[in-house]
Specification:
The complex is a heterodimer. By secondary structure, chain A is an alpha+beta fold. Chain A is built from 29 helices and 36 strands. In chain A, helix 19 packs antiparallel against helix 20, helix 22 runs antiparallel to helix 25 and helix 27 packs parallel to helix 28. The N terminus of chain B is likely disordered.
Chain lengths: 922, 105
């Protein structure tokens, strides 16, 4: 007890001494602690210091109350977070935490509140601008004087930058781990320190097996010597790059790898080990080997290739050229390589190079560029150049290939010329030709002559088929014929073809088979025989007419002899009867029958144009009137004939027989134009055609008629008329619109010929449906009409004298003539033929007249006349004949100066003629 | 801030020294006392008894000072081994403090 008291007393003294010596800062009593003045001052200084520390600290400092509201924040925290201090105070601390981290932070804070102590965590906070502030936050719980939780104090360090460095580091680690390359590190003694998945895959050791193992295990025995060298290099700070070597896997298999080994420095900056990056190049080595072999193969192929190939750079330098390329140009390889095409003058035409380069530039390649190239010896060859870019891994390179087409071009040229020749032979052939497809009948080719013949162009023809050129009615027959026709050259006969204008042609077709480009064609030769056919037809008709004419002429000759006898004897008989004798009427009937037979014979001769033309001055009115009287009976009942005669009609000089034929032909023509009947008007008038014709209508009518005085014969019908094309052709010989057999085609041309022969003109006006009008102009003559034919009854008064040598082979006629002449007082010497006549002529010196037939057996009449002429210079000659074509009458026209008596004749006609000849003044 | 209370019952070792220094914040005498006490304890050799040492700020925990019968600050209290010894002042007389605490020289 005393001890305790003493101690307390001692303590109290000590306290007092401490107080007295100023060693006490505060006194404590039941209500708290009270600072002494000096301690107060020091404390204030101390608080000032803390405040300075807090405000100037490099860390953010904050406090929150028990409800986690911020009660303090320093400037550093404000600058870190981008807020002002005042903005932060009072707000919940979690407002400054990134959303995903808030729950974790709240949980940690509540644990601190319950358990006290302090923690450090990395927390993602949000700056005022929304960016993330990574903060390392040291948090301590605060307790009040009574020991209750009063809040938290936090110290914040900005680790945003550090975290990104760490993130980068972890990424590098991930890259290393995921790399396919083997990446590991080793210490300087060769102990493996790290080992990635790539290393495991390459060497076959797991990380657990490899780490701590020596790299020596990876070396095969023959490569073990490499290790000291590698370590030595690493120790001296030199990396080993791309070392290719062999290593052994855990399973013993050998691999070829490429190694890069780099020194690793520790934190002290000293080399502490090495990183190793290893890559399996076993496959690559195999590939390289294959590639090398492949390249060798291709080099060989390149060299021996039959194509001309060179490799050149973009600067035109020849890098390589194969054997054929060198041969093509005639250079040694050494002469070409390293030189440019321009240096060598390989371009025969230097101007070609620029366009080729342009194509290469724009299209990247050149295909079959035609040019010519010069060989070393100067020879120029044609070639097609192809240029392809190739990648040789260096500068851009090009493969130049030249196809030598010199021979081909020459052959092409020959072929083209040959083709051209044969094309010309086809195209320019005067014979129309085409070829058609045998199955489709399409016209494949056609020449110009064919185009001309059908009126189409060649292009039109080649777009047609054979059906298009045939009349519809012939198509089926033609197709059948083509199908049935045999192969080979043949004559296909004559077919009807249709021209573009619709007119029909007769075409004679020759065929030949050709096969062009696999197509079976027929070459057709198309000979237009339309004209030939109608000519043939006309010729046949003419020959028939000629034959009929010959027949008619022959018959007429005999008829003439017979009629001469009939008429002659009936006349002689007539004289024997007295006037008033009833027998004379019978004789007159015989005479009339003979005369009618004479007219018929004349018509027969007219029809066969065997009439002798004897022009005389005549009154056309009489001639036309005479014919019309005859025609009225012949021409048909439904046709009216009218004749209109001008009162003072002039005279013309023409053969009356010819004029009769003209009128007859025109009348028949008009009748044929009026199958349903109608009217034919004949009109005769005097016209004067002058140079100055004022009347338009008359000028048109008289077109082509020379000026002068004419008798105009107009023949007008009311028939069908003619189209202009027909009208233009009607005077052409053998032109006819009538059916074969109905007309000769000579009618109007005979008219035309007769009118022209007579010095006249003929014209025609016509229109379809409006009839036809012919106008015949015959020159007027001033002379009077020739004496009318001798008529019977005057012969008795014509007493005559003189010697006549009569030569006639027809006995009946000879007797008649002898009787008539002797009876009239002539001395008649009668001979049956020329020989007999010559005999008589020799015995009779005096012969006044030779009356002879023209055509006789033996010598003809003219021959006889000629042989007698010398001995009988004064002898006159009178020929008798029934023919129109003989020695004295050529083609119906009497030889001038010849005296001629046409059979049949009457006794009076004979006597009249003889007197006329004997009285002629020579 | 509150530290975990030292084991005042001295249950670990018999020779263990348990000290508690009552200070008035960072007042000058308190700071000097803390500094002197650290010096004293620092010169002790390794084989000596271990020391449990606690600082109590009377400005915050006046009640504990009162419970420990501490009236002025700074005061160093030896809680173990008993008896309890109280030393008031800046503890600048090292010899006297060492003597009072029973520490060897």
């Amino acid at each position: 007890m005393i001890e305790t008291l003493e101690r307390e007393l001692a303590e109290s003294r000590a306290a007092n001494r401490a107080l007295a010596s100023g060693q006490v800062d505060a006194i404590v009593d039941g209500s708290g602690a009270f600072l002494l003045d000096q301690a107060q001052t020091a404390l204030q200084e101390s608080e000032e210091l803390f405040r300075t520390i807090v405000t100037t600290a490099d860390e953010g400092i904050w406090t929150v109350d028990s409800r986690m509201a911020i009660t303090f924040a320093n400037e550093r925290l404000a600058s870190m977070s981008g807020y002002r201090v005042e903005e932060m105070l009072g707000r919940g601390a979690d407002e400054f935490i990134r959303g995903d981290a808030r729950d974790g932070v709240r949980e940690r804070f509540s644990r601190l509140a319950q358990e006290g102590g302090s923690q450090r965590h990395d927390v993602p906070c949000l700056r005022k601008d929304g960016t993330v502030l990574w903060a390392s936050v040291a948090t301590s719980a605060l307790f009040g004087p009574a020991g209750g939780f009063s809040g938290l104090l936090g110290m914040v360090t900005d680790i945003t930058d550090r975290r990104s460095v760490e993130a980068a580091r972890s990424r590098v680690a991930a890259i290393v781990e995921s790399s396919d390359d083997a990446i590991f590190s080793k210490s300087l003694d060769g102990t493996i320190l790290t080992w990635n998945a790539g290393a495991e895959a390459l060497y076959g050791y797991t990380p657990a097996e490899a780490i701590g193992m020596s790299v020596v295990s990876l070396f095969p025995p023959d490569k073990a010597c490499e290790l000291p060298k590698i370590l030595e290099s690493i120790q001296s700070g030199h990396p080993v790059r791309h070392l290719e070597s062999d290593r052994r896997r855990k399973d013993g298999r050998m691999i070829t790898i490429s190694l890069t080994i780099s020194p690793l420095k520790g934190e002290d900056g000293l080399i502490s080990g090495a990183s190793v990056v290893a890559r399996d190049v076993t496959e690559r080595h195999r590939h390289e080997e294959e590639l090398r072999r492949s390249e060798e193969r291709f080099r060989a192929i390149f060299q021996v290739s039959p194509a001309n190939i060179a490799i050149g750079s973009s600067s035109d330098l020849i890098q390589n050229a194969n054997d054929r390329y060198c041969q093509f140009f005639g250079y040694e390889r050494e002469e070409m390589i390293g030189r440019t095409a321009r240096e060598l003058g390989l371009w025969a035409n230097a101007a070609d190079r620029a366009p080729m380069i342009e194509i290469l530039r724009t299209q990247g390649r050149v295909q079959s560029f035609a040019s010519s190239f010069r060989r070393k010896n100067g020879e120029v060859r044609d070639g097609l150049m192809t240029v392809e870019p190739i990648d040789l891994g260096t500068e851009p390179m090009f493969l130049f290939m030249i196809e030598d087409i010199t021979e081909r071009k020459a052959a092409d040229k020959l072929l083209r010329e040959s083709e051209e020749r044969y094309r010309l032979l086809f195209d320019e052939s005067p014979m129309p030709l085409w070829s058609y497809d045998q199955s489709t009948l399409e016209i494949v080719t056609a020449n110009q002559a064919a185009a001309d013949q059908y009126g189409y162009t060649k292009d039109e023809l080649t777009s047609m088929t054979l059906d298009d050129i045939r009349p519809a009615s012939e198509i089926e027959r033609a197709r059948k014929a083509i199908r049935a026709s045999a192969a080979g050259r043949q004559f296909a006969g004559v077919w009807k073809h249709k021209r573009k204008d619709g007119s029909l042609l007769d075409v004679e077709i020759h065929l030949g088979d050709v096969q062009i480009a696999g197509r079976k064609l027929r070459l057709s030769m198309l000979n237009d025989v339309t004209g030939k056919r109608s000519l043939e037809e006309q010729l046949r008709q003419a020959q028939k007419m000629e034959a009929v004419g010959q027949l008619a002429g022959g018959v007429a000759h005999d008829f003439n002899n017979l009629l001469t006898a009939i008429l002659g004897y009936s006349e002689l008989l007539d004289r024997r009867f007295d006037t008033g004798d009833p027998a004379r009427a019978d004789v007159a009937e015989i005479k009339r029958a003979g005369e009618r037979a004479t007219v018929l014979t004349r018509q027969l001769l007219a029809f066969s144009r065997k009439q002798v033309l004897v022009p005389e001055v005549l009154d056309l009115g009489e001639t036309v009137g005479g014919v019309l009287r005859l025609l009225e009976r012949l021409i048909g009942e439904n046709i009216t004939l009218t004749l209109d005669l001008a009162p003072d009609l002039g005279r013309v000089e023409a053969d009356p027989g010819q004029m009769e034929q003209v009128v007859m032909n025109l009348a028949v023509n008009a009748r044929d134009a009026m199958p349903m009947g109608g009217k034919i008007s004949f009109e005769l008038s005097n016209v004067e055609v002058s140079n100055v014709e004022l009347d338009e209508g008359r000028r048109r009518d008289h077109l082509g008629v020379p000026p002068g005085l004419y008798v105009l014969l107009s023949v007008t019908d009311t028939g069908t008329g003619m189209a202009p094309e027909t009208r233009d052709r009607i005077f052409e010989p053998f032109f006819t619109t009538k059916e074969v057999g109905r007309g000769t085609g000579l009618g109007l041309s005979t008219v035309h010929g007769i009118v022209n022969q007579s010095g006249g003109s003929i014209s025609v006006t016509s229109a379809l449906g409006r009839g036809t009008k012919f106008r015949i102009y015959l020159p007027r003559v001033a002379r009077p009409v020739s004496g009318s034919h001798p008529s019977s009854g005057k012969i008795a008064k014509l007493k005559a004298c003189g010697t006549i040598l009569l030569v006639e082979d027809d006995e009946q006629l000879r007797r008649l003539a002898n009787q008539v002449l002797s009876h009239s007082g002539y001395d008649v010497l009668v001979a049956q033929h020329a020989e007999q006549a010559r005999g008589l002529a020799r015995t009779h010196r005096k012969i006044d007249l030779l009356l002879t037939d023209v055509v006789m057996p033996g010598s003809s009449g003219p021959e006889l006349a000629l042989s007698l002429a010398a001995e009988h210079p004064g002898m006159r000659v009178l020929y008798m004949s029934g023919y129109t074509d003989d020695a004295i009458v050529q083609h119906g026209v009497l030889t001038p100066g010849i005296q001629f008596l046409q059979k049949p004749f009457t006794p009076n006609g004979l006597l009249h003629r003889i007197r006329h000849v004997l009285n002629l003044v020579l | 801030m509150r530290k975990e209370p030292a084991a005042a019952d001295g249950g670990t070792r018999k020779t263990k020294l348990v000290l508690r220094l009552y200070v008035a914040g960072s007042g000058p005498n308190s700071a000097a006392a803390l500094s002197n006490l650290r010096d004293l304890l620092a010169v002790r050799s390794g084989d000596e008894d271990p020391v449990e040492f606690e600082v109590v700020n009377v400005l915050r925990e006046a009640a504990r000072a009162f419970e420990d019968s501490v009236i002025v600050s700074p005061t160093l209290v030896r809680l173990h081994p008993l008896p309890v010894v109280r030393i008031v002042g800046t503890l600048c007389d090292h010899e006297a403090v060492r003597l009072a605490l029973g520490l060897p020289k």
